[in-house]
Amino acid sequence: MIILSLNCGSSSVKYKLYNWDKKEIIAKGTVERVTVGNSFCIHKVNNKEKITLKHNCPTHKEAIKLIADSLIHPEYAAIKDLSGISAIGHRVVHGGEKFSKSVIINQEVLKTFKELAGLAPLHNPPNIMGIEAAMELLPDILHMAIMDTAWHQTIPSYVYTYAVPCEWYKKYGIRRYGFHGTSLLYVAKRAAVLLNKDPFECNLISCHIGNGVSVNAVKSGLSYDTSMGFTPLEGAIMGTRAGDHDAALDLYIMQKEGYLPQEMDKILNKKSGILGITGKYIDRRDVLKAASEGDKRAQLAIEMEAYRLKKYIGAYTAALGRLDALIFTAGVGEMSDIIRAKVLEGLEILGIKYDPEKNRLARTRNAELDISSDDSPVKIFIIPTDEELVFVEDVVALLEGTYDLHTNFRYTFQDPDYKNLMREKSFEKECKENPDLVKIQANKNNR
Question: 202 and 191 in contact (C-beta within 8 Å)?
């Protein structure tokens, strides 16, 4: 059984082709600069060198066609024919309260996604465009939606309810929803494996730090609280999103500058966060480089981001009462030892003690690492996320009629002997250049 996962962002499409029977990735890649111009695809087939394909993609339809063509191209094919694909899993960021788990897409489901599009203006519209493009190009293949909000359906009402007029919830569904659910589900289940504990006995804090940022408190294996809220705008400081701030500030600036709601929405979602602080950077690598060269605003951005994350970790530790592990994941969480160090400094009072040398070594997206000090009561793990594998497993289970909420469903990556073969090979290459990486592996069975 061959499954294709598609993750459509505003200007990119990530994809992964998975052979379920062999439990291995056949191909993966990303189409960058969709709708922007000078588009290109980085395409990697298992056991072959990755290639870069330049092709203009003014819309997501061209991007998905480029992916489809690449998968069966005579020179760098992953499969012989697209008819060999059993189903396609699509990431959908916001499902509101309509969807508590993954679902097979039909026209009624698609209509509901469109009604909810305004709740995640950066994500749901490109998600929908990707679904429609894929359904048009590949109409004979089943399409499934994997919901980013599903993981957070266990958050209790006293946590998800806002202190605003109660009729807003009844009329408009105003409440905390939370996002990055597939990533947070994956790392929570993997952390339980690394701890050698039943997942429903684990208390965790997960920090998904990329362009978007989520901090998630997990109590007894269930999502209990999370930093993002009604939309992905709330919470930590992000690449272009403001995160937590006084709501009256928005009203004040709207009055002063004469902004319409749509204009303020764009500023808060696309022109704030790290970009707003620095005035020119979004990518943390650019920020760190500029900071090292004396850029005061870049230095300020790093300090602000780390401080905000530290506050969330402290608050969630208090809310949980007991903490088994702190997890870092996603691009920045997995790769930036500097930002991790600034977050972790001073958390000893919470029983969170890191090893600076282990943290310095920990720069890979191909292995699960342990950067805790030997005497740390709380484990500190770096777990490379694998949202696409969650997509695949949900899709297969939907096809086979075995799918259920994660409380009643066991993923293959919960097996202590689970291996990601493509990551394993990449990690072996990295260890040739940096043998010390092996010393901080959290689990020798998984890469």
Answer: yes
Which residues make up the CATH 3.30.420.40 domain(s) of the chain?
2-147, 157-382
SS3 state at 353 = coil
Taking a C-beta distance cutoff of 8 angstroms, is the pair 274, 286 a contact? no
Cβ atoms of residues 223 and 341 within 8 Å = no
What tokens does 423 get? 């990551």
Using alpha carbons, select from 306, 305, 343, 302 the residue that is nearest to residue 326: 343
Whether residue 375 lies in the annotated active site: no
Q: Which residues pair with 372 in a beta bridge?
A: 354
Its pTM stands at: 0.90
CATH of 2-147, one of 3.30.420.40, 3.90.420.10, 3.40.50.150, 3.90.650.10: 3.30.420.40
Across-strand partners of 208? 214, 329
CATH 3.30.420.40 is held by the domain 157-382: yes
How far apart are the C-alpha atoms of 241 and 225, rounded to whole Å?
A: 20
How far is the CA of 199 from the CAs of 45, 204, 215, 219, in angstroms? 33, 10, 18, 10
Neighbouring C-beta atoms of residue 386, cutoff 10 Å: 20
CA 27 to chain centre: 20
What pLDDT was estimated at residue 99? Answer: 78
pLDDT band at 426 (very low <50, low <70, confident <90, very high): confident
Distance between CA atoms of residues 42 and 53, nearest Å: 6
Sequence-distant (≥ 6) Cβ neighbours of residue 208 within 8 angstroms: 180, 183, 184, 187, 214, 215, 216, 329, 330, 333, 385
Among residues 373, 320, 374, the alpha carbon closest in space to that of 202 is found at: 320
Whether the predicted pLDDT of 63 surpasses 80: yes
Instruction: Please give the C-alpha separations between residue 355 and each of 9, 337, 360, in angstroms, as whole numbers.
Output: 36, 11, 9
Residue 444's pLDDT is 60
**Annotated active-site residue in 148, 295, 370, 394:** 148
